[in-house]
Amino acid sequence: MNFGSRPRRGALNRSWRYGIYGLCFLGAAWPASGCSTSACPSLGTVSGTLTLDGRPLAAATVLFTPEGRGRTSCGTTDSEGRYRLTFLRDMAGATVGRHTVRVTTATEENGNREALPDAYHARTTLEATVVLGRNSFDFALLKQPR
Questions:
Q1: Is 1 within the bounds of a domain?
Q2: Is the residue at 86 inside a domain?
Q3: What string of H, E and C letters represents the secondary structure of 20-81?
Q4: Average pLDDT for residues 47-56, to the nearest whole number?
């Protein structure tokens, strides 16, 4: 056994993906904790489109994580690459402020295979600033980011 070695790249990505799924699960489970509308932070509705090399990116998970503390909002793209974020099960949107944006295509159904480069999830460079009201963020992703 070599206790000084670093984890395999696949193992690190797998643990990161499970953490992302956990965040979405907690977001769906939070309403049971009794968050009233007055106790929740200010939200802006968020929607948009994802493309990969100019084509709609279907079945991708989109995550907006606020700077500092706060709940991650998530959504899934449809067959046309459109997404809409959910803060809680019955509350659409994301916390007002700056967010780190992550996009992943890895799911249990596809054996946790990721079709996107790390630049869009594990080492994301994507950001967005959510304001009160309606927000639309379109992301044109590339298989070979620059």
A1: no
A2: yes
A3: HHHHHHHHHHHHHHCCCHHHCCCEEEEEEEEEECCEECCCCEEEEEECCCCCCEEEECCCCC
A4: 98
pLDDT-derived band at 24 (thresholds 50, 70, 90) equals low
- How far does Cα 54 stand from its chain's mean position? 20
Q: Which of residues 40 and 44 earns the better pLDDT score?
A: 44
Domain residue limits at 130 = 9-141
Residue 94 lies in a domain: yes
The residue to which tokens 């959910």 are assigned:
86
Supply the pTM of this predicted model.
0.75
Tokens coding 44: 């802006």
CB 87 within 8 Å of CB 115? no
Residue 117 has which token pair? 């480069």
